[in-house]
Amino acid sequence: MKKNTKQKIIDSAIDLFSKDSYGKVSIAQICKNAKISNGIIYNYFRNKEEHTFWRKLATGSRSNLKI
C-alpha cells in the first residue's frame, strides 16, 4: 500500500533529523527526501519553525503526536 503524503513527509523528517540537527534540515530537504514538490508540504504543515510537531520529531519525543 502506498503511504499517504502526510506520512511520507513525517517519515522524511524523522529520517533527516536522525542524520542532522533540526536547525540544519530545511523544508526543501524534507520535500526532496519525501519525493514531493516543495509546495505540497504546506497543505499539511504551515512551516517548520511554528509547528512544535517538528521539534518533537527532531528530539525523538514522539509520544502523544497526532498524525
Question: Which descriptors apply to this entry?
Answer:
67 residues, mainly alpha, Arc Repressor Mutant, subunit A, globular
Q: Can you describe what's shown?
A:
The protein has helices at about 5-20, 25-35, 50-60. The protein has about 70 residues and is mainly α. The protein has one domain: Homeodomain-like (Arc Repressor Mutant, subunit A), CATH 1.10.10. Helix 1 packs across helix 2 and helix 1 crosses helix 3 (about 50-60).
Short description, anyone?
This protein is mostly helical and 67 residues long.
Write the layout of secondary structure elements.
Elements (H helix, E strand, L loop, with lengths): L4 H15 L7 H8 L17 H8 L8
- Average pLDDT: 79
Percent strand: under 5%
- Rounded to the nearest angstrom, the distance between the terminal CA atoms is 18 Å
Provide the succession of SSEs.
HHH
Total strands: 0
- Number of helical elements: 3
What is the fold-level CATH name, i.e. the topology? Arc Repressor Mutant, subunit A
Cα Rg:
11 Å
Q: Major sheet, described briefly?
A: none
Helix/strand class:
mainly alpha
Helix content: 40-55%
CATH class: Mainly Alpha
- The CATH architecture can be named as Orthogonal Bundle
Looking at the chains present, what oligomeric state does this protein adopt?
single chain
- The domain count comes to 1
Shape: globular
Query: Low-confidence segments, ≥5 residues, pLDDT <50?
Result: none
What is the CATH superfamily label? Answer: Homeodomain-like
